Known about the structure:
Shape: elongated
Order of helices and strands: HHHEEHHEEHEEEEEHHHEHEEHEEHHHEE
CATH topology of the domain at 425-577: Heat Shock Protein 90
CATH architecture of the domain at 425-577: 2-Layer Sandwich
Largest sheet: 5 strands, antiparallel
Low-confidence stretches: 375-385, 533-540
CATH class of the domain at 425-577: Alpha Beta
Mean pLDDT: 78
Number of strands: 16
Amino acid sequence: MKQKRSSWHSLRTSITIWSLGFAAILALTVAGASYSLSQRFLSQSQRQSASTNIQLLGSEIGAEFEQVILFTNRICVDTAISDYLKQAILAKENDELLKRIRRNAVSCWDRINTELSVQSVRSEIRRIIVSVPDGSTFLQNIPVYDSRNTKDPTSILMAQPFFESLLKADRPQFPGFEESVLSPFYTKKILPVIRPIYSSTSTQMVGWVYVELSQELAARVLDKYTPAEDEALFLTIQEGDSYRYENHEFLHSPLPENVVSYTVPGQGWSLSILPSKLELQSRSRIYLIVISLIFLLILLAGFLMSFFLRRMITTPVSRLLNKLVKIGQGDFSRDPDIEWSNELGDIGIGINQLSLNVSALMEKKVQDEKEHQELEYRILQSQINPHFMYNTLNTIKWMATIQGADGIADISTSLSRLLKNISKRTESLITVNEEFHLLDDYFTIMKYRYAGTIELEYEIEDKSLLEERINRFCIQPIVENAIFHGIEPKNGTGKIQVRLAGEQDRFFITVTDDGVGMDEASIQSVLSGSDGMPNDFFRQLGISNVNRQIKYAFGEDYGIEISSMPGEYTSMRLTFPRSKGQG
């Protein structure tokens, strides 16, 4: 009967759900990874572009500042200027010398103008002052006309907080953008540069030079760069002051996070750019559109895949199910239409073969049922014989007892017990004590058979080992081997010793006879089962079979070991594991 199921559990629905689900997961994974990578790539690309731009701008501004530093260096090392300053210091109390240095002042003035005229940054140098240390005597050059120049400029400069720090600095420094204290009506900010001038013949400072730079020195370079709407340029001066360049002005502003900075080598100041978030978002939207298209394409591919899978799988599966329904209704004929040239076709071939096999099995089952009935009848007959033999042996035992034939009674009793254990008991493991009792019954029969020429002796080291469990009928074949292959061939009396001993985790039953012994080839023949013993019950068990039974029951670490000396003895040791908790 065909089982009814919900449409949610159909193969078609499962294929659709799994295909679309897999496509959706794949699309989300690809889209998420692509978006994350694209954001990282865009951010890195934007910062790399910003880094390239500020390196170009910083290098250009650095070159401008380097020109100013070189210009001040030339003034500081000019011997004519340093000699003039030394003479000016000495001329304070010497009128003749004062008249002479005034002529030298004109020469120094010309040298400064000449040096300035060759500078590419001369238009950004608003003022040059060369003065003695106390500012009493100085030369001033103002290339840019300013009718409102401040009088006594040296005193004003020397009173500024940045004067001493710049004068004593080891290398040229810029304190930051300042208001011009010498030209109060100049609206743009300036960068002051102050350098000491030393004597050409000693380490004495004979004066200082002041150079006033217009902010245009940096502004005209930064104007070459057109920032985005929310992008910002920052200039950080040597002493740590940061300025944001906006609308051709340098506005004091702290340096924000996530800026890309470039420090000009050898000058100590840096240029920074805060990348545009709007530009990054604009590029991200483009990438997001592309990623969305990829997402939709993967979903479409998943839908198409589910459609084709349904066509390729559900139709053949439906035909296979119909065939199974027919088999359930008793139609076991072969259907060639379900044997396609693919894996489902292999299933179809298997179903056809199964159908034929079921038909054959049903026929065989009918035949087996007939044979089973016959076998049950034979088993019933076979159960009559052991009961008949028990009763007969018991009758013989009582008759022998009444007549005083004790030997016949013993043999009858032993044989009866052996037959009872062989036919009725089915357990595979018994205690060592029970096995020894079975061995006693067997040996009683063999002792009468050999007219008392054989003897059996037990040696038990630990009586608790008698309660350990071993394979049933595992010692009789060993003792039988000792009798038939050890003691009987020497045509005399013989003795068999059974020794029970143990260790911490195992115990041993050793059967030793004083018979003719065995060579190595005979030992291997006995263990392999190719010794050709006669075919009665115990010999059918065989030593090789006993060895296998022990290994099957307890593992490969246990079994039979044989040692022998031809003409002297044969010893077979059976190894068994001890029960847990004993030792």
